[in-house]
Design a protein that fits this description.
21 strands
Length: about 350
């Protein structure tokens, strides 16, 4: 009893005076590969916590090197900021000369609250160059509590105007046997035909069960669902969660990286799969496994984004979960929530 009371007292002191110790910290990290299969972690943090806009979590990153920047790297990512027990989420950008050291822009480029559809949790940016303008696909929770995939356009990638309507809604893919309660997390590839294929996450009934589906579009506005599921949950290491897709083209097909887990959001890893046609995928195992005693990824690795770089190499940007020592209460919290959904650890 004394031990329990001392523990509760310590936790109360930390909560009242050092809340940053108990607040989860998610950072964007990176790894390098010569074959897109075997990965080696790179030292340091790409996007850390703190800074002028006091980030607590950084994830859902998109990285590219657009021609107007003359070789500079540009990243768009979601920042989560905890304030008085509430979370505020927005999409920010950053630039880098080498892809490792990043300068964060202080002002959010897209925030929630602008409409009933973009009510909260604005996140998961993915940019496509349409020549005279850029389109950003992103996810947001509506005032009705449902996640949808929306879009915004810009000519300078600084000032964005949200487009009317919804790009992907859960109603488009719900069936009697497999209802969907939300969609999120896009990855888009341009096909030889000139069409676009979007891979995205589907919530099956609740966000505790997720898998990856796909859709096609001629213009990037109207999307038509493709039959079936690209990555089904239920495999070894991803019994309940397969989400956060990132897809690259290879000489003989496509390679996907995705986050997989048996319980959201802890103990998740990054997996890889290969496809000749972009439709039928073969799981090839884990690409990156979280390290329990790693300073920045003690509880999970997730949100992979992979792109080819110089010297025929590849870089994966990913998020490392948490990274503080007082973690048992949070772990017990998610285990309890999982059990309420019928998920056994």
């Amino acid at each position: 009893m004394l031990r329990i009371n001392l523990y509760k007292m310590l936790r109360r002191i930390l909560k009242d005076n050092f809340s940053w110790v108990l607040t989860p910290r998610d950072r964007i990290l990176s790894a390098i590969s010569e074959d897109s299969i075997n990965w080696k972690r790179e030292r340091g943090v790409r996007i850390g916590v703190g800074g002028n806009h006091k980030i607590d979590m950084a994830y859902y990153q998109f990285v590219h090197r657009p021609e107007p920047l003359d070789g500079l790297w540009e990243m768009f990512y979601q920042a989560g900021i905890s304030h008085n027990g509430l979370w505020k989420n927005a999409i920010y950008s950053a630039q880098s000369k080498n892809g490792l050291d990043w300068i964060k822009n202080d002002q959010a480029i897209l925030s929630n609250g602008s409409s009933e559809l973009n009510h909260s949790q604005t996140r998961a940016p993915f940019l496509v160059d349409f020549g005279s303008y850029w389109r950003m696909y992103f996810s947001a929770k509506g005032a009705d509590g449902i996640f949808r995939i929306l879009s915004a356009v810009s000519v300078d990638r600084i000032n964005w105007e949200i487009e009317e309507g919804v790009r992907i809604s859960p109603e488009q893919i719900s069936t009697e046997l497999s209802p969907a309660s939300g969609v999120s997390d896009t990855a888009i590839v341009e096909l030889p035909s000139g069409e676009y294929r979007m891979y995205f996450t589907v919530y099956r009934q609740t966000e505790w069960f997720q898998e990856i589906c796909s859709a096609l579009s001629h213009d990037g506005i109207v999307w038509h669902m493709e039959a079936g599921v690209r990555i089904k949950m239920g495999g070894e290491g991803f019994r309940t969660i397969a989400n956060n897709p990132s897809v690259i083209k290879t000489w003989d097909g496509y390679r996907m990286y995705f986050r997989g887990g048996n319980l959201l959001p802890i103990w998740n890893n990054i997996f890889t799969a290969f496809s000749n046609d972009g439709i039928n995928w073969t799981i090839e195992g884990s690409a990156l496994i979280f390290l329990r005693w790693h300073r920045y990824e003690r509880h999970a690795v997730a949100f992979p984004y992979v792109l080819p770089i110089e010297d025929n190499k590849y870089r994966m940007y990913y998020t490392g979960y948490w990274g503080h020592l007082v973690d048992r209460p949070i772990i017990k919290h998610y285990e309890k929530l999982g059990k309420q959904q019928g998920i056994s650890i």
